[in-house]
Amino acid sequence: MLNRLFIKNYALIENLDIQFNAGLNIITGETGAGKSIMMGALGLILGNRVEGKHFFREDQKCVIEGFFKINTYSLQDFFQENDLEYDDETIIRREIAVDGKSRAFVNDSPVTLHVLRLLGEQLIDIHSQHATLQLNTERFQLMILDNVAKNQTILHDYKQNLAQYKLQEDSLNRLREDIAVANAELDFNQFQFDELDQAHLAEGEQEKLEAELSQLENAEEIKRALMRANLLLRESEQSATFSLKESLQQLQSIQRFMPSAEELAERLQSALIEVKDIADEVSAKEQDVFMDEGRLVEVNERLSLLYNLQKKHRVDSLSELLMLRDELEQKILVVANQGEQLVALEQEVAKCLHALEQAGKRLHDARQQAIKQVEHYVQAVLAEVGMPNAQLKIELSLLEIDKYKTTGADDVRFLFSANKGQPLQSIHRVASGGELSRVMLAVKSLVAQTSALPTIIFDEIDTGISGEVALKVGEIMERLAGNMQVLAITHLPQIASKGQAHFKVFKEDEGNKTKTDITLLAKQDRVLEVAQMLSGANPGVSALQHAKELIER
């Protein structure tokens, strides 16, 4: 609900501060008095863009503030999502600097125009005679049925099922894409893995083979060196062992004369034993070394295989080949596991789809049951406001499950005929602006009985009606205002007389400037205003009496 509107330095408005009533607020004034200026200012705090500079005084900024009571609108989540401080009385402010740049604030927190527009849509609904508004949209038409049917719980359940189905379906599609990519690579990965697996690679094998190859290629030279070493250690007359034995005998022969020679003899004895051991090992190794052409070919072939595999896979070592083999094996296993995941996820999607289908059907059935109530109510109200032959028919068709929407599982059409003999057609094709306004008035009065609607502003929707019809429109606005705040800008006395608060917009000259102002009319002033609307600037006694009767009626 709009509690208060403050406008400073905007167009012809110098300072304006209006306190609105919670029910039906009437705004009247001569053509050109400034009612459209007020609507323009209000539009700015609802997120409209600034078109040029509109300043009463060019050297001062423009400030527009709206004070809204929002405790019944369940907007806490919106404020939390947009990181705004929530307050039951929320203040929206728009400032336009002298250079034309503007800033917007919600409870003193700066916001973008997008956020301001989203919030504004939930606070005020401006309904003009030439605007088709939401009535032509499927979303609004379904909202009417859901409100009348009290579908909030069913609709919430449907949306949860739809969200869960979409989530699982997205997961399934991603998995299928992953599997398609993996399968495209599977044959190649399997070929590479088989090649590496069949090579029976072993860690450290390459180093051992390279050492063995070196020995096989130099077997003759190795054998010759070992034989010569053995000869020098033990076989020749001047061998190391022979010389050590002779030296040992000499030391032993002088031990009785030179006791210290005993220690030297013992040391020499140890050296002799070590040399004999070395000679034995050299002899054994020499026996083991021989030319094996078959083994040489075998080692060369094995090493060639290892080298070729490394070159082919662009790695530098056998260890990297082993790592590649393990990676390929893992990729192949993943494809096998993805197949199992795919089956499980397909089953989950089918389960979610079934639950969604059931939720969509429940929502459809509940909406179907509300159709007659909406049709009868709207036609009854239209008959009240001078359209006795108007017909409204609502067609609701259940969609195929793959075409379900966030609004539900239905396609909806509001078919309308204003006159006898006129075929029913989509409402936006056949309803004039005035007719559409009256249909909207009927719909809003119905919906307002079951939900908290935002403040609605009827901006001169009374064009083309008069007399008793205008009186009925006023009465319906009056009923509508029992459940929500209504602002009605009107030129008709029948509607003006119904307000709980009546504001008059007027122009006045101040020095060399003209400015727009607004005032809340007291009872007697209100009678005069309605009388002037009935008969002109100087109403007679009968006009004043008629105005008084209208107001008191």
Please provide a brief summary of the model.
This protein is an alpha/beta fold and 553 residues long. 56% of the residues lie in helices and 17% in strands.
Q: What would the principal axes of the Cα set say about the shape? A: elongated
Oligomerization state:
single chain
- Biggest β-sheet strands, sense, barrel: 6 strands, antiparallel
Q: Uncertain segments of ≥5 residues (pLDDT<50)? A: none
Give the terminus-to-terminus CA distance.
26 Å
Average of the residue pLDDT scores: 86
**Name given to the CATH architecture of the domain at 1-123 and 454-521:** 3-Layer(aba) Sandwich
Strand coverage percent: 15-25%
Polypeptide structure, described:
This protein has 553 residues and is of the alpha/beta class. Among the domains are: 1-123 and 454-521, P-loop containing nucleotide triphosphate hydrolases (Rossmann fold, 3-Layer(aba) Sandwich), CATH 3.40.50.300; 183-334, no CATH class. It has helices at 35-45, 76-81, 113-121, 138-149, 152-198, 205-217, 219-235, 240-253, 260-288, 293-312, 318-384, 427-430, 433-447, 467-480, 493-496, 523-535, 541-552; strands spanning 2-10, 13-19, 24-28, 62-69, 89-96, 102-106, 109-111, 124-128, 391-398, 410-417, 425-426, 455-459, 486-489, 501-510, 513-520. A hairpin with a 2-residue loop joins strand 1 and strand 2 (13-19). It is elongated and about 165 Å long.
Features:
alpha/beta; elongated; ATP-binding; nucleotide-binding; Rossmann fold; 553 residues; 17% strand; DNA repair; six-stranded antiparallel sheet
Could you give the topology of this structure?
Layout: E1 2-10, E2 13-19, E3 24-28, H1 35-45, E4 62-69, H2 76-81, E5 89-96, E6 102-106, E7 109-111, H3 113-121, E8 124-128, H4 138-149, H5 152-198, H6 205-217, H7 219-235, H8 240-253, H9 260-288, H10 293-312, H11 318-384, E9 391-398, E10 410-417, E11 425-426, H12 427-430, H13 433-447, E12 455-459, H14 467-480, E13 486-489, H15 493-496, E14 501-510, E15 513-520, H16 523-535, H17 541-552
Parallel strand pairs: 3-13, 3-14, 8-12, 12-13
Antiparallel strand pairs: 1-2, 1-4, 4-5, 5-6, 6-7, 9-10, 10-11, 14-15
InterPro entries: DNA_recomb/repair_RecN (IPR004604), P-loop_NTPase (IPR027417), RecF/RecN/SMC_N (IPR003395)
Coiled coil: 155-281
Protein name: DNA repair protein RecN
